[in-house]
Write a structure and sequence with these properties.
alpha/beta; Rossmann fold; Dihydrodipicolinate Reductase, domain 2; Alpha-Beta Plaits; twelve-stranded mixed β-sheet; six-stranded parallel β-sheet; elongated
């Protein structure tokens, strides 16, 4: 395509949309040299054209009708940054039907409706780029689809939510409890007024579903991803983890179990302090990818925010623009051509940290250990500390065992007369 100007139509001018516009403006000359053509924002769809903006924009560019952007014959690339599933899905499909490639940072849309969208993009032979949907400014989608494409990806493990990582960092380093750490995250702008998508693990759930689908060349449905948030993590668990040489992180894991089966899960985990992810602090994200040829590769950086995510979106805009100019749109499409079974969490094998309050009397350890033994759970270590003359706290670290076994064992332990409470059960990842 012989084109001097590529016109952009942007849907949404919130946090990510503002960051995208700012990056485009800040680095305009460099970006245009890299593309070989000028970039021009033609229209921007927003809910309220009169609302104050994070970045100044010409009011004549604004509209509250998304279809004025999508259906504009002068718009070459549609950039979807509104979030959510509906009406984002309808907007994206309409843009593709209109012959326009799409750039998106919408993780929920990709996780829930990615199959339909990628099929539509394939039928139209158009690009649908979504680097900004996972990891904020960290490049991970393109590396997995391109640079690491020669590998069989065996495992992806990461900290992919900055809000929860900030909260857990505050709890570990400052000794604050969960509620106080959450308030601080909200005050800093790291957590929304309604933080449930973050603290309940759903944000990470969407992201690992996307990464797993790419890693295993098979569509992983978000409903098949086990999800557990951080709301039950206590200051006491943090103290014990530090004492035992671990850090507690919310991890997202996708791992090959067999040629036909994978495990995909999100949950808090104890990581040895020597683990590469254990030192990831505050709002930073990090993703470890293990390929059969390359071994371990780690991606690290700011996982959210206006400019970092805007950086990823602009990177996709550059890539899609180059493809338009060279007539190569749709070159890298959907790679989910295999069928993989996601095993249920009950069949997943890992180690466990189990903390309980018990009566401080003889034979308690033997009774609890006996239940573990009945369920074929081997113990790696056990530590006990006295709470008062009548009560003690015991922490068990198990060897690897199935989730189902630990659930049955802890349910039985709760019924022992000498056990007052099984306070926490947290997975341990090496």
């Amino acid at each position: 395509m012989n084109k001097e100007v590529i016109h952009l139509g942007i849907l949404g001018l919130g946090v990510v949309g503002s960051g995208t516009v700012e990056v485009l403006r800040r680095n305009r000359d460099s970006i245009e040299r890299k593309i070989g053509a000028r970039l021009e924002i033609r229209r921007i769809a927003v809910r309220d054209v009169n609302k104050p903006r994070r970045v100044p924009v010409d009011r004549s560019l604004l509209t509250n009708n998304a279809y004025e952007v999508i259906d504009d014959p002068q718009v070459d690339i549609v950039v979807e940054l509104i979030g959510g599933v509906h009406p984002a899905k309808e907007y994206v499909l309409r843009a593709l039907e209109n012959g326009k490639p799409v750039v998106s940072a919408n993780k929920e849309l990709l996780a829930k409706e990615g199959a339909d969208i990628m099929m539509a993009a394939g039928r139209c032979h158009l690009d649908f780029a979504f680097e900004g949907s996972v990891g904020g400014g960290i490049p991970i989608i393109q590396p997995m689809k391109n640079a690491l494409a020669g590998n069989r990806i065996e495992r992806v493990m990461g900290i992919v939510n900055g809000t929860t990582n900030y909260i857990l960092t505050k709890m570990a380093e400052d000794g604050t409890d969960f509620d106080q750490a959450l308030k601080e995250a909200q005050a800093q702008g790291y957590a929304e007024a309604d933080p449930s998508a973050d603290v309940n693990g759903h944000d990470a759930q969407y992201k690992i579903a996307i990464l797993a689908s790419i890693a295993f060349t098979a569509r992983v449905k978000v409903d098949d991803v086990y999800c557990e948030g951080i709301t039950k993590i206590t200051r006491t668990d943090m103290e014990w983890a530090n004492r035992l040489g671990y850090a507690i992180k919310l991890v997202a894991i996708a791992q090959e179990v067999s040629p036909k089966a994978v495990q995909v899960r999100v949950h808090p985990a104890l990581l040895p302090l020597s683990h590469p992810l254990a030192s990831v602090r505050d709002v930073y994200n990090a993703i470890l990818v293990h390929g059969d040829a390359v071994g371990d590769v780690m991606f690290y950086g700011r996982g959210a925010g206006s400019l970092p995510t805007g950086s990823a979106v602009v990177g996709d805009i550059i890539d899609v623009s180059r493809n338009l100019l060279f007539g190569s749109s749709g070159r890298v499409g959907c790679t989910c051509f295999d069928q993989r079974y996601v095993i249920p969490i009950e069949q997943v094998e890992t180690s466990y940290y189990v903390r309980m309050r018990v009566q401080d009397r003889p034979n308690v350890l033997a009774q609890v250990a006996g239940v573990f033994g009945i369920h074929h759970i081997s113990i790696s270590s056990v530590v006990q500390r006295q709470i008062n003359p009548q009560e003690a706290e015991i922490v068990w670290i198990t060897h690897r065992t199935q989730e189902g076994a630990i659930r049955h064992a802890t349910a039985e332990i709760r019924r022992l007369p000498v056990v007052m409470d099984v306070c926490s059960t947290i997975r341990v990842e090496e």
